[in-house]
Amino acid sequence: MKLYIKGLIFAGLLASTACTDLDTDLNTKYPTFPDNPIAVEGEFSGCYRFLHSWFGRDFNECVVNQGDEVMGCCFGAGNYFDDGRYLNSSIHSLHLDDWRTRIIEGCMSGNSYTNTRIASYGGPEFNDPLVAPLRAMRAYYHFWMMELYGDAPIMDHVLQDGEVIDRSPRAEVAKWIESELLEILNQEDGLSKANDVSTYGKPNYWMAAALLAKLYLNWGVYTHDITTVDNNTPNEKLNDCVYWCDEIIKSGIFEVGVGYRKKFFPDNGVHIKDFIYALDVDPATKNDGTTTWYRWFGFKKDGLCRPYSLGWKNDKSLAGQTVLTPEAVARFNLPGDERNEIILQGPQYAFDAQFNKTDEPVYIYTNPDKENTRIGQLNFRAEFEFDDASIYSLGDEALPKATNATVKDGTALMNIQKGARCFKYPPREEDYSLWSRQQANDAPIFRFADILLMKAECIMRGATATLGDTPGSLFNTVRRCSSAPEISGNPTMQELLDERSREFILEPWRRNDLIRFGQFENDWGQKNKYKVWDNEEHTQFHWVERPGVKDPNRRLIPIHRGILETNLNWSQNPGYQGL
Hints:
Elements: H1 3-18, H2 37-49, H3 57-62, E1 70-72, H4 87-90, H5 103-121, H6 132-149, H7 170-185, H8 205-217, H9 219-223, H10 238-250, E2 275-279, E3 305-306, E4 322-324, H11 326-331, E5 343-344, E6 346-347, E7 349-351, E8 357-361, E9 363-365, E10 374-377, E11 379-380, E12 392-393, E13 401-402, H12 412-415, E14 421-422, H13 429-433, E15 443-447, H14 448-460, H15 471-480, H16 493-504, H17 510-516, E16 529-533, E17 541-545, H18 561-566
Antiparallel strand pairs: 1-4, 2-15, 3-9, 5-14, 6-11, 7-8, 9-10, 12-13, 16-17
């Protein structure tokens, strides 16, 4: 049981024994709401929890896989290829029928649901301080629509039956989000400044401030033509970003702490002071269906290994189709850095109950029940190739679709060793056995470490330094958490970008970072090229650059065909027409 769950139960018991006031006026508008915190929780929690329907597996397969850290593939002919849904994001080839591109639909549904509550309890102008957390959540949903799709609908009211809503230009959406956040952040008696059991996983003052800082960090991206954005794109909001980073820093509430790995263990929660806002999950008490199932996908066929690498036998499918790119693995090379321990490469050893590696090697067996069928120690290799030269089929389309993605040389037994894995979110046995692979590890969205590195970046880009901080001092504060070596002086921009990958791998910001730094079209993994056989014997081939992958229009994802068919006044994002 997570620590904060115990606190909620205790608080509930106190509430049940203390609520003895029987003099409530039954004719008041809110006989129990908003004066009763339990009623507030019941009315508003649905707005917050709407996030869980799309910020899990779908989000990661669509968005996180677009970065330079992970790549989707499969380890046997057609095994979990699933029409390329894991691979297409990795090679920047999302298409109109990929159901992972429906994230905007979940955001719009969350906005609609939240707007009904704002209209009911926000007063005549819909700005009652009571609904400030709902407005923060609505701004957050708008942020992801704008971040991923560019132009997006501004949903600031309850839509009437038959009402048609247009997509607004991206810069206008950014300015609307800014105005919403500034209004509620400056509102008296609105957003709570508490950071405890009562606010964990919910929008409070600090979540809104972190969202505004993230908006300002990318202001140049959001207000310029996406195809022209690079590392030198002007940003007029750098000092504003620093201001809101400082608001969080000066609060004294948050800290990076000591010990990196424990922040992401299954018992993480409100006691992790690095977390400003997190996806609060617990399959035992908050069962949301598929919230964190995707995190298993790096560990295929553990049942073929002895001892079991996680400590128990995995009979259920774990897919295992997500591996780290060699480029990402190479970044985890700092001496003494605890973050290196989350990267699994080379000979593998079993883990104990505290997720520490033992000295017991893990071996692969053709038949794990018979010792004489052992074929060798499990050895994850970061470098690998795909199996054949015709991974992609061009056909007549401008956007090649993947037709296969199996790794090279061998049976499934050998192929499970291809690619390094990330062990950032270790699972518990009960997550596997009792909760159908739904993990209890909360997923951080805004972290204090990010605030420090965002401030460092703004100063490096020209913002005024404050509070005696330098880019180097902020950078080193983050590194101390994982005992990584500190630097003298200030980091370069590339060192900062690399550090962001080490610190935030498998968190939702890598795609966002690469676009801001002008590196989204760079080569990594197998993203930008494919093989063409020169002869029928498949003994000679040459590399061909895939058309389209370096099209800067791909910095936005396409709108699903079904959504366009519902919203006939919308048009597809450039770069995806006719697909």
